[in-house]
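Q: Given only this backbone (406 positions), what sequence would you predict?
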């Protein structure tokens, strides 16, 4: 078959892009001809659907108009020559074609289940965003019925489909394997190793909770944070603030910062203490955190090897790739109870702990694992089973079955 693979182009390459490359390579090996079609993921202000005033109002809610711009471009794609469309990120599943297989991890979440948290974060005015969300729902609903079958990346993702579009019934799961490759026998677990968090520094990944836990654990261990993003500078400021804070302040401010648009402003006293500590001008607790930023695959794998515990604090995560990668390195994980696909993965494997979404609870979970050899051994033994369960052969078979249902 001739298959059009439609994807918004955001100019970045991450885990999803790597997964898509693997799936397309398999389709090619099966004799299908795939063609990549993209629409700009970062739209510029312009008229949309003949609305000459769209560009004039774009600045009032850029996320809304960006989504409408992408939808406009997707709907204009010429797809008659293709036997099937494989859609990917939103809104590519709104493409004009009679046979669409939607590889689905999320819809435009800030207009759906993250709508109220997005408002509470301070990133947008409430009434404006609620009106925008209602309009997005109408646009999606008008075209989403064109999807023949949904291939959801987790049960969390499948539940989003049924909640957003209740009439949808043709859904199956894709259990993608980890993208990291661990040796058959990873190095032995070291209780003295650092706590590790691998994440994009964006909302709502909630790396602030891991940062707070790191400061609550500073007498026990160091912490390594991997990843870049728009909140990295804010995390650096919060790190300095935590150096001069009490445990109660750390726990409270980490929770507040994790779901708000900006890092809360500290008292002048603690802000000065944090800056002086960072510059080495005052004796006292230094930061226990190493910000490693963007790293190579080898450097990431070395961080997994060093780690004693991997923390994944994201809110309503699609899948939980970081936790899966930690498990193939035989490292226990700590996730939060509202972590979506992360919780699903821990429940399936038994290779981690689920805690409340606070810095204090994460720190307590890490302590439990590090200071309880029997618990650590039990979690590691369960992690060892993961590599044999989540394989590319299994994922390819799930993709092939989904194709047969389109």
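A: Predicted residues:
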């Amino acid at each position: 078959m001739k298959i059009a693979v439609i994807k918004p182009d955001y100019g970045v390459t991450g885990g999803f892009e790597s997964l898509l490359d693997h799936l397309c390579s398999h389709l090619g090996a099966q004799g299908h001809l795939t063609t990549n079609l993209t629409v700009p993921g970062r739209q510029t202000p312009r008229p949309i659907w003949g609305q000459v005033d769209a560009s004039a109002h774009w600045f009032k809610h850029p996320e809304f108009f960006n989504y409408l711009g992408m939808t406009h471009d997707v709907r204009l794609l010429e797809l008659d020559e293709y036997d099937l469309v494989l859609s990917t990120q939103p809104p590519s599943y709104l493409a004009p074609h009679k046979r669409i297989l939607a590889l689905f991890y999320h819809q435009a979440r800030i207009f759906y289940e993250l709508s109220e948290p997005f408002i509470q974060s301070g990133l947008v005015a409430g009434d404006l965003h609620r009106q925008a969300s209602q309009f997005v729902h109408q646009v999606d609903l008008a075209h989403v019925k064109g999807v023949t079958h949904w291939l959801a990346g987790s049960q969390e993702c499948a539940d989003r489909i049924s909640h957003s579009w209740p009439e949808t019934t043709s859904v199956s799961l894709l259990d993608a394997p980890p993208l990291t490759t661990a040796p058959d026998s990873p190095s032995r677990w070291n209780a003295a190793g650092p706590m590790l968090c691998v994440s994009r520094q964006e909302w709502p990944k909630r790396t602030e909770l891991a940062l707070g836990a790191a400061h609550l654990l500073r007498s026990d261990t160091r912490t390594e944070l991997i990843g870049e993003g728009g909140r990295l500078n804010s995390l650096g400021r919060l790190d300095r603030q935590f150096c001069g804070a009490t445990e109660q302040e750390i726990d409270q401010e980490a929770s507040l910062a994790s779901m708000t648009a900006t890092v809360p402003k500290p008292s002048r006293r603690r802000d000065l203490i944090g800056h002086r500590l960072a510059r080495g001008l005052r004796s006292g607790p230094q930061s226990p955190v190493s910000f490693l930023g963007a790293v190579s695959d080898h450097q990431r794998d070395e961080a997994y090897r060093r780690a004693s515990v991997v923390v994944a604090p994201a809110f309503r995560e699609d899948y939980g790739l970081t936790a899966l990668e930690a498990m193939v390195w035989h490292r226990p994980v700590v996730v939060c109870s509202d972590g979506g696909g992360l919780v699903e993965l821990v429940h399936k494997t038994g290779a981690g702990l689920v805690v409340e979404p606070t810095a204090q609870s994460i720190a307590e979970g890490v302590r439990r694992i590090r200071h309880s050899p029997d618990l650590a051994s039990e979690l590691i033994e369960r992690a060892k089973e993961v590599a044999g369960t989540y394989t590319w052969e299994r994922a390819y078979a799930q993709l092939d079955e989904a194709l047969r249902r389109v």
